[in-house]
Input
Amino acid sequence: MRVLGVDPGLGRCGWAVLERRGGRVAALGYGTIHTDGEEVAPRLAELATRLRQVLAAHRPEALAIERLFFNANVRTAMTVGQASGVVLLLAAEHGLAVTAYTPPQVKQAVTGSGSAPKEQVGYMVKALLGLASVPAPADTADALAVALCHLNHAGLAGTEAAGAASTEADWLARAAPTSPGLARKGGGR
Amino acid sequence: MRVLGVDPGLGRCGWAVLERRGGRVAALGYGTIHTDGEEVAPRLAELATRLRQVLAAHRPEALAIERLFFNANVRTAMTVGQASGVVLLLAAEHGLAVTAYTPPQVKQAVTGSGSAPKEQVGYMVKALLGLASVPAPADTADALAVALCHLNHAGLAGTEAAGAASTEADWLARAAPTSPGLARKGGGR
Output
């Protein structure tokens, strides 16, 4: 299972490609695509170009995208919507299965709390993936987190072989001894 | 000057291609793209496919798009944003110059009042373009209206030859004797 996680945005769009290999999760690539300028259309084109490069380089099978929080303001919703429209279009055109997660779902999956602060998400992403440092900017950490969230949910929902679901619980238990709530959710073998 | 007008939306996306030919404006094509279903990504892909067909058939040079009203709710802003993200991406990828207009600007341009009701917009679009009937659904009428708005603004802003700007005032005056406010704005020869 290889998943592209995206935290959509026009100015900063976080992305991460994770792959589950047996009981481990490998980060194949991650980063944040920055665009700026007055005109929205060329920025969306730049975002699409960069995302197509990511898709071509890593060939993920699924997209996990962070869903907008409905307490956002209308202007934020509009620009996040524009960026997510481009992300979803590319996903459809590349045949990726799409799942959206709310910010609390993502936080719950990686920290055990749906209301964890941003720093805690970054810290846990680093710990779960064995990274050398906390990914920055936060958009990158959020993209890694939504991809991790998807690997967790995909395993639990039984869309993977039963063995994969329990080895996923294994890797979470191994990688994150401080997050028992999460590891427990996977169930035992 | 050939312009694609778009009233963006996920369920219904109005489009219209207008061309100024001397002192007249011709409607080359217009309609509303409908998409439905639970999943957003395939709907955006369908929207993109249909819009690419419009772009290939009519080869407009410019995009005029209706800008979201900021009194919209967040959910509306999100889905309109997603659809407009796709529209703007295609515009950039096809080299179209993009201009956004607010609903009051569009209403002002075709009815002389920024707060005109929807029916009045439909009525004036029919009158200005000499159509056999009021375009339906309203998304189609709104797309025609934003394209008309752009032809009006483009002429007034002097981005066309001076002759075109004044012949534009001429066609508005000829086509819309009931809309003196609009016709006057163009200035006389």
About this structure: Residues 157-189 of chain A have pLDDT under 50 and may be disordered. The beta strands of chain A are 2-7, 12-21, 24-34, 62-66, 97-101. Chain A is about 50% helix and 20% strand. Chain A touches chain B at residues 39-42, 44-45, 48, 63, 68, 70-75, 77-86, 88-89, 91-93, 96, 98 (CB under 8 Å).
